[in-house]
Amino acid sequence: xxxxxxxxxxxxxxxVVFAAALGVGTVTGSPIDMTSTHTGGHAAADTESAPSLPxxxxxxxxxxxxxxxxxxxxxxxxxxxxxxxEDADGAPVTEYDDLxxxxxxxxxxxxxxxxxxxxxxxxxxxxxxxxxxxxxTGGTYRVFTDFQASxxxxxxxxxxxxxxxxxxxxxxxxxxxRAATVDGYTVTLDGDLTTAGGPLTLTVTxxxxxxxxxxxxxxxxxxxxxxxxxxxxxxxxxxxxxxGDGVTAxxxxxxxxxxxxxSGTYRLFLDFQHEGTVHTAEFTVPVGASEPAPTTDGxxxxx
Length: 303
Known about the structure:
Largest sheet: 5 strands, antiparallel
Number of helices: 0
Order of helices and strands: EEEEEEEEEEEEEEEEEEEEE
Mean pLDDT: 82
Strand order of the largest sheet: 1-21-20-17-18
């Protein structure tokens, strides 16, 4: 998963705005509330007493549930990953609204964030989502689903863990840095991720030359997924502007607005497309005075 993939297989991911419209982001370029306002489950929740939680930490929310996930049981085995989204009656959901050109965004990450993938499965007539799948290593993975069921008041991000048998080499958390290199590209980060919120600008260069012809990808020039280390609280947001609006440049800068829900360390995964291929640049970002300042040295990113 550390190699770039084509638009078809790896759609997917720093303009992060932590909040509940998480997933793909409800308003491009606007802050997204990373906290959910309801507890989930097939039974209705008491919205007045329900705790506020970051997205992706619940398997059920607002009457929708991410069902059991079927997939290969061992690393290296080819097969399919499949699941259903169920409504409050336990019936599979079969109709969804488009969110940034897709009806569902599937993000899978190993618990230590060393493996990351963003794809778009296919929906069957019976409500089953599926995609070809091979786990790269053993370990525990979190599977996130971003979607909005047709008729639902808002999009949701539901998550479920999958344990995979096979060899596991624990990976240390990469050092905090303001530069990442992937597939010959260098991406630099300007701005700080804080609990107060603010702009984050990612600048893409290739061989030292600014990339000014980024491809439109899922309706934007970049997508960011941010994960809080430890519990994998989740955010997926999109940058300011959109391709073809007559204002937004196609690089080298991609600007997001982000707000972290708490102090801690976050992993950021930026998806961008150039010359028909999607690349993923990774960053480790501290939030809070106790964290060391990021370095300016580049490091290998992407999966």
